[in-house]
Amino acid sequence: KLKQDGFFINFQNHISLPIGKSVPMIITIKPSSGRYSGKQEIVHFTLYIEVNNGGVIPIYIKALLTVPYVTLDQKTLDFGDVHCGQCCIKCIVLKNCGAVEAEWNATLVGVKRRRRYKDSEEEIPFFIKRIGALFPPKTAELIEIGFIPTKERLYETLLKLEVKHNPEKMTVQLIGSGLEPRLFLDPLTVQFGAHVPYSGAVQR
Question: What is the dihedral of CA 30, 35, 40, 41, to 10 degrees?
Fold first, then answer.
């Protein structure tokens, strides 16, 4: 059963041990993903060593089997309306909730546009200031994400986050709208009416 759980014991049985001498016992842990599929699990068992004409020595073995995993404080990041050419930066909180170091990597993936945009060139106006890092357990850090629109339209992008040695993938939806500068004239028609030449200037 120990081998099925991923534990291997290398120890010489039935030996005569002189006074003051010792022999090594090597315990190897090699868990499989099929046997342990959760984020973390505590495994423990007791190993007994019998001494001829003596007692029984119990050895308690305990291990925490875990994978690095992180959490995000939000699933959607809305930048709202931003004027074209200007930059808006927002942050999401990334926290290492596991018991080991977590090495993460972030990428941006474009979302298919609506039909009216299908013939235009795809662009991703979002950017990440830091695309990856290795940080200790039980710590948190900010990921800064920027948005610089170039056209007046709605932009949607997915931020994909992957953690090394963890098959689970996380995504954050990024949304923002670009606004082009507009100039309004009021009124659109200016009428001067009848005017006698050389009688002076008339302003409206």
Answer: -90
User: How does pLDDT run across 104-130, given as a tens digit for each residue?
Assistant: 999 998 765 544 444 444 678 999 988
Domain-embedded: residue 165: yes
Residue 56 near residue 32, CB atoms below 8 Å: no
Residues in CB range of 44: below 8 A, 6 or more apart: 60, 61, 62, 63
Instruction: Give the pTM.
Output: 0.68
Q: Are residues 24 and 95 in the same domain?
A: no
- Is 48 part of any domain? yes
Say which CATH number the domain at 166 has: 2.60.40.10
Least confident of 26-35, 47-56, 114-123, 160-169: 114-123
Q: How far, in Å, CA of 53 to CA of 38, rounded?
A: 44
Give pLDDT, residue 46: 87
User: Is residue 43 within 8 Å of residue 137, measured between CB atoms?
Assistant: no
Same-domain pairing of 32 and 133: no
Structural domain for 90, as ranges: 70-112+123-179
Q: Count the domains in the chain.
A: 2
User: pLDDT band at residue 15, thresholds of 50, 70 and 90?
Assistant: confident
